[in-house]
Specification:
Blueprint lengths: L4 E6 L4 H4 L13 H16 L6 E4 L3 H14 L5 E4 L16 H8 L1 H9 L11 H21 L4 E5 L1 H11 L4 H5 L9 E5 L5 E6 L3
Parallel strand pairs: 1-4, 2-3, 2-4
Antiparallel strand pairs: 1-5, 5-6
Helix pairs in contact: 2-3, 4-5, 6-7
């Protein structure tokens, strides 16, 4: 197996995940469950014997705290860490802070479903997944992928939709395919890559 390893982790459950609110670029903290999920992710990665050379995360505290908890659990607190807005969650615009049931009551079930599950139709004032891909993918290609291909074991802690942007490329998924892909909180996805940047193997670590 190659030693070009990329690990993706969605942040642990946030306070707004628990309350069923659209979060986007808003900045709630992790719940107790979210903290436990992050620590469990660290324990699973430690059991794999992974030692990270570099870490990437978003500018949002739930992703940064998840990374800190993961690395702390692994005893690797000193890993070089880079944070970028490019890895922020999809911006939900006018939906941000709203309860998802309240949004359905205001705009209708069908319209909210379109905003959440279409690839290229954004909510008012927000981003579509296509928009998120457009800001996340260049950062991946310029900053993250070169480190992986140099053999640096790399972890990215981010968000459901910014990680979908990376997964779409890594797994060569269609727009329809990526919208159906669930990204669970606190479950590490371990990719081993070839020198040409294609994926050799992928495993999700879960108890």
């Amino acid at each position: 197996m190659s030693d070009r390893i990329l690990v993706l982790v969605r942040h642990g459950q946030s306070e707004w995940n628990l309350k069923n609110l659209f979060t986007g670029w808003r900045d709630p903290d992790l719940t107790e469950q979210g903290v436990a999920e992050a620590k469990r992710a660290g324990a699973l990665l430690k059991a794999e014997g992974l030692k990270f050379d570099v870490a990437f995360t978003s500018l949002l505290s739930r992703a940064q705290r998840t990374l800190s908890l993961v690395l702390g659990e692994m005893g690797q607190e000193g890993v070089e860490t880079l944070a970028s807005q490019a890895l922020n969650e999809r911006d939900y615009g006018d939906l941000s802070g709203l309860n998802k049931d309240d949004a359905r009551a205001k705009w209708g079930e069908e319209q909210v479903h379109v905003w959440r599950r279409s690839y290229d139709i954004p909510p008012p004032g927000g981003e579509s997944l296509r928009d998120t891909v457009a800001r996340t993918l260049p950062y991946y290609n310029q900053e993250i992928l070169p480190r992986v291909l140099r053999g640096e074991t790399t972890i990215v802690t981010a968000h459901g939709n910014s990680l979908r942007a990376l997964i779409m490329v890594l797994e060569k998924l269609s727009p329809e395919g990526i919208m159906k892909r669930e990204v669970l909180t606190g479950v590490p996805m371990v990719y081993r890559m070839r020198a040409d940047s294609t994926v050799e193997d992928r495993r999700d670590l879960a108890i």
